[in-house]
Write a structure and sequence with these properties.
Chain lengths: ~400, ~90, ~325
């Protein structure tokens, strides 16, 4: 079906189609509308879900953990300070291997308070052992949620998944998108399979013991393995989704990379802006390509190396900063993945607090990369794009 | 218990062997040992309901002994006994 | 009246081999609570002594499904478990009756967990939250909490040359909980197991959120001999520092020994005598601090009179 939906309503619609057992949320801009629409579905009896309007995001995620380990399908949504407040229990959810799916409408962190998009919230949670998928547009935001259910619940993975979309840029933008039928969604996601559920009172289990130096490390090592196994699962589910919808997904989505000599790497809605800029620069004869980083966790290090080796220069777009570090979080990881490759990687930190990124700015970045490619010289590895 | 490697244990510290703490004997914490006088005991079960360690053994409503594998020697049983049927003695004393 | 003989036929759901201190009140409370429950239970436990000492990996003392998530979120965690149960029951995927319990210490309940507790009570989850109240952060080494009695010396409210231990009275959490207008809440003590077990059974049979605040002696933190735990939790009641009462559908009622005191059938003991037996109050017994000590007795009196009024005396 073709519909015109905003990011928020598309999220609510996808959640309605998933029809999870429990949703626990707390309102926060810019994801509030998604929860309002989902509450409408609950109020009208369109879903079987029990909706918990929690007293905070910390409690919302705590409810999600309890509900998930009780043995059922659980979803939630948040943004910014909400994700930050959840920080402690994000780790608990992942460590107890709760297959929770959470939509995050990326928004800047305080202070000063700002309601608009950047990726500081998601990047702050990057080490929490949650799988992170980023959407370029509303269609992808919808598609990602449905795939995320399968990825999270896969027995080789069993990790929570965070589906990210840019606050306001996508959450409040109405786009034309294609949605599946409810039955197609249900068939794709299948039935939830509980593993060691708390509600199995005949087989009592203990979750969350005191785990000291004799075993904690082993349990962390298991999470590393789950992330490793997730690469293959994310890919296969992305392909399978393609068979149903005609829209296939991978960890990395290249554009005009076949004969590219320089590249731009971005995630989220900026990939769309960058695509237009790449197309424009191609018309001017610049051999530039775009790599859209769709999945940030697990970080597709091997694929990225394969895709970017031989490039003369790569611009990495970061919509958050890691203060005091050598560049933004995406930059550090891309550079690290390219260890041993003769590729100049340059960082552009942009769009903090919702500062718009324009096509001409990305074109300027591409021009800068052409210069690097020609001269072999980098003026500055970390650059702030669009700041006065 | 032999320490397992990461491939052998369940994820996240999940424990499925409910109540396996019985494998860990806390009796060796004890410095004072409760000695029960069967003759004075009326099986009122005050000691049983007040024991922090479920160390008073009861069968068919009657006290049948003290589980020294787990008794930490706190002495609560001796204090709550209305019939002075439990005496605390130095561990090792006869 | 509870028949101990009958109860003793039930399975011990908190296995021995846990590593709570000798004479710990928490495990006595948990044993009594679990003996009181007739249906299967699922438990969420806040971070604290009870959680730490009962589940040292790879061991668990729990013979019931049990989850520890974090310090401040036991109420939210059990709310999530209970909500999933309600869905499964509605869908017919579960048919049997299960009860949902949370245990938190006073730190995890009065302080860091009060928001999650209040939220869960307001939302109406069918849960029983139990605060085992030992009056300080005992697990981390006896730091003061908002449940620490006035005058108690803790590691963060130490009795010094100038300051005589904790300077404020604990907040009245049971009354705060009662203000949520939930079906049932109350206070009890493991020394009065009839009262405790009766209240747990009442709470579990009520529909909706219920709460019990249970005084939990701690030999390490209160500084008394390990064999004195039950005596201390008994005297806390007889001196009216910790009255036994319940609030059922808005009706306040004294119970057990406290009711008997109010009705003149039992003697009320002295708060100061109870304090004298605990090392945490030792510094108060000087001439200079007599006025401070007297103020504690007065405050306990005042609170007791208020409670009596609420209960219709």
């Amino acid at each position: 079906m073709i519909q015109a939906l905003s990011g928020n309503t598309a999220v609510a619609y996808a959640m309605k189609q998933v029809n999870p057992d429990v949703v626990a949320v707390y309102p926060i801009t810019p994801q509030t509308v998604a929860m309002e629409r989902f509450a409408d579905y609950v109020a009208d009896g369109d879903v079987d879900t029990e909706l918990i309007m929690a007293d905070s995001e910390h409690s919302a995620m705590s409810c999600c953990i309890g509900a998930s380990l009780a043995g059922g399908r659980v979803m939630t949504s948040t943004a910014s300070a909400g994700l930050a407040l959840m920080w402690e229990v994000l780790y608990v959810a992942a460590s107890n291997r709760c297959p929770i799916v959470m939509n995050v409408m990326n928004r800047a962190l305080s202070a000063p308070i700002n309601i608009h998009c950047d990726h500081s919230d998601a990047m702050g949670a990057r080490d929490s052992s949650w799988i992170q998928i980023h959407a370029e547009n509303v269609q992808e935001a919808y598609d990602n949620i449905i795939q995320a259910v399968r990825i999270a619940e896969h027995e080789n993975v069993r990790l929570p998944v965070m589906t990210n979309m840019d606050g306001f840029t996508l959450s409040h933008a109405t786009e034309r998108l294609e949605t599946l039928d409810d039955q197609q969604v249900q068939k794709f996601i299948g039935k939830f399979k509980a593993i060691y559920p708390l509600l199995d009172v005949d087989n009592p289990v203990t979750y969350g013991p005191l785990d000291l130096y004799d075993y904690y490390f082993e349990h962390k090592r298991q999470q590393v393995e789950a992330m490793e196994l997730a690469y293959d699962v994310v890919k296969r589910i992305g392909q399978e989704y393609g068979k149903v919808t005609g829209r296939s997904f991978d960890m990395l989505h290249p554009f005009e990379m076949d004969d590219a000599e320089i590249a731009v790497l971005a995630l989220g809605s900026t990939s769309g802006t960058a695509r237009v800029a790449v197309r424009a620069m191609r018309q001017k004869g610049v051999k530039v390509g775009l790599v859209k980083l769709r999945v940030f966790r697990p970080f597709p290090k091997d694929g990225l190396k394969e895709m970017l080796k031989g490039m003369k220069a790569v611009a990495v777009m970061d919509r958050s900063d890691s203060y005091g570090a050598f560049g933004g979080p995406v930059f550090s990881e891309v550079r690290s993945a390219l260890l041993g490759e003769d590729v100049e990687v340059v960082n552009y930190i942009y769009g903090l607090g919702g500062r718009d990124i324009r096509q001409d700015q990305v074109e300027q970045v591409i021009t800068d990369m052409s210069t690097v490619a020609k001269t072999g010289k980098v003026k500055s590895y970390v650059n702030y794009l669009g700041v006065r | 218990m032999k320490e397992k490697g990461w491939k052998e244990c369940l994820w996240g510290g999940l424990i499925v062997d409910a109540g396996n703490s019985v494998l860990y004997k806390t009796g060796d914490w004890r410095s004072q040992k409760p000695i029960r006088d069967e003759k004075k005991c009326t099986d009122c079960l005050q000691c049983w309901i007040m024991c922090p360690d479920a160390a008073i053994k009861v069968k068919d409503g009657k006290v049948v002994g003290i589980d020294y594998d787990y008794c930490k020697g706190c002495g609560i049983c001796s204090k709550v006994c209305p019939f002075d049927a439990i005496e605390m003695k130095e561990e090792g004393e006869q | 009246m509870v028949s101990l003989k009958k109860l003793s036929e039930k399975e011990e759901l908190l296995a021995p081999g846990h590593r709570l201190c000798a004479g710990c009140g928490a495990s006595i409370i948990v044993r009594q609570v679990l003996l009181a429950a007739e249906d299967p239970v699922v438990i969420a436990n806040a971070t604290g002594c009870l959680e730490v000492a009962t589940t040292i990996y790879p061991y668990t003392a729990w013979r019931v499904p049990w989850i520890h998530s974090a310090f401040e979120n036991a109420a939210a965690t059990i709310a999530g478990v209970e909500t999933m149960y309600q869905v499964k029951k509605r869908k017919g995927e579960i048919t049997r009756d299960i009860k949902f319990l949370a245990f938190g210490g006073d730190g995890g309940t009065y302080d860091i967990g009060i928001q999650a507790l209040s939220g869960a009570l307001e939302r109406g989850h069918d849960i029983l939250y139990i605060c085992y109240n030992n009056g300080a952060y005992m697990n981390t080494g006896i730091q003061r909490s908002s449940a620490t009695p006035k005058g108690a010396s803790t590691t963060t409210s130490p009795a010094g040359k100038v300051i005589p231990g904790k300077r404020r009275f604990p907040k009245d959490l049971t009354a705060i909980v009662a203000a949520h207008n939930i079906p049932y809440c109350g206070q009890t003590s493991p020394s009065f197991y009839n009262d405790l077990i009766g209240k747990v059974q009442k709470a579990l049979s009520a529909e909706g959120p219920t709460f019990l605040n249970i005084i939990s002696p701690c030999p390490r933190g209160w500084r008394h001999e390990t064999d004195q735990s039950i005596a201390m939790a008994e005297e806390a009641v007889t001196c009216c520092f910790w009255p036994l009462y319940e609030v059922e559908n808005g009706e306040w009622r004294l119970t057990g020994y406290s009711k008997q005191i109010a009705e003149g059938k039992k003697e009320k003991t002295s708060v100061i005598d109870w304090m004298r037996k605990q090392g945490r109050f030792r510094h108060l017994f000087t001439d200079a601090r007599k006025p401070f000590l007297d103020s504690i007795q007065e405050e306990v009196e005042r609170e007791w009179e208020n409670l009596k009024k609420r209960c219709g005396y």
